[in-house]
Amino acid sequence: MVTLVVATTVDPASIGPASALLAMPGWYPGPPVQGMSSFVNKGARLLKHENSIVREDHLDKRWEEATGEVVDEVIFLSKHTAVSNRPALTVHPIGVPHLREDEVPPAGGKPGWAAPPNPRIGPWLRLLKAIAESHNLTPEFEVTLEATHHGPEINSPTMFVEIGSAEEYWKRQDAAQAIALLVWEGLGLGGGAAVGDWSRNDAPNKILLGIGGGHYAPRHMDIALKGDVWVGHLLSGYSLPMEDPGQSKQTNVEAIGGTWREAIKVALETTKVAFPGGEVMAHLDHKSFKSWQRNAIIEFLAEQSIQIGKPKDFC
């Protein structure tokens, strides 16, 4: 079982951290995979390609077919873009579970799909924040979660680690070094204990499934930054399309259209896959919903036997 770290040469925020990581001890050339070069260090495999980071699908299975090694998890190195251009270091799960079959995903993936969230997301968010602070990247760079979004399509537990949000920051060597150190320490490549290994978890087994809020999930992140919180999928408001049936004061839940149910189901199922034996608990950003939306989601979660937790319930 190996960890696949993926970088692309066409993205400075991807190849920069990859190059910094490969400059650390212990790496040696690995097998070529369909024209892509690879590098090996203990249980880590770094794979480089020359295409869009969100367009190369099923790299886990392609690696397994080429090498015979089973991929346990995938970590993508990428740039982050935002209208604000604000410098940021981000982590997030991937998927577009809210899209209908006839919709074309704007940035990879498949409609109605989400990859299992990498269990390291919560622990690595906390580690990334500590690294950024110790390397004087904060407060210039914001360290943040992002909601579940975009591709590529893949079936292994996956996370994106990104540098944002404009070219001047994508090329920053200090930011690249921080991301490289996150992977180095997080995977235990320097000899220390790996961070966020669910299979070795002996802490409370509650996993946060975030529902509602904006793209940067501030209320969910407030919880994730505390203690030993594990983080699953994070569905922002735009990933929960809900069509008002025109009966907002006396809502018939069955009359509420949109793909919000499907999005929650997929996020729930894949989060359970990523955390075998764990208890998935929803955390709602209550203020981001209208009352009829909130009531419908609460009723639907009850039908799925999913408990809704308060911040103290996850710590």
Record the SSE blueprint.
Elements: E1 2-8, H1 12-22, E2 28-29, E3 37-41, E4 44-49, H2 59-67, E5 71-81, E6 88-92, E7 95-96, E8 113-114, H3 121-134, E9 142-145, E10 158-165, H4 167-170, H5 173-186, E11 206-211, H6 218-224, E12 230-235, H7 260-274, E13 279-284, H8 291-303
Parallel strand pairs: 1-4, 1-5, 5-10, 6-9, 11-12, 11-13
Antiparallel strand pairs: 2-3, 3-4, 6-10, 7-8
Helix pairs in contact: 1-5, 3-5
Outline of this structure?
With about 325 residues, this protein is of the alpha/beta class. Helices cover about 30% and strands about 20% of the residues.
Describe the structure.
Helix 1 packs across helix 5 and helix 3 packs across helix 5. The model has no long low-confidence stretch (mean pLDDT 94). The chain is 28% helix and 22% strand. It has two domains: 2-197, 3-Layer(aba) Sandwich (Aminopeptidase); 199-313, AF0625-like (Rossmann fold, 3-Layer(aba) Sandwich). It is globular and about 60 Å long. It is of the alpha/beta class. The protein is built from eight helices and 13 strands. An eight-stranded mixed beta sheet has the order 2-3-4-1-5-10-6-9. The protein has a three-stranded parallel beta sheet with strand order 12-11-13.
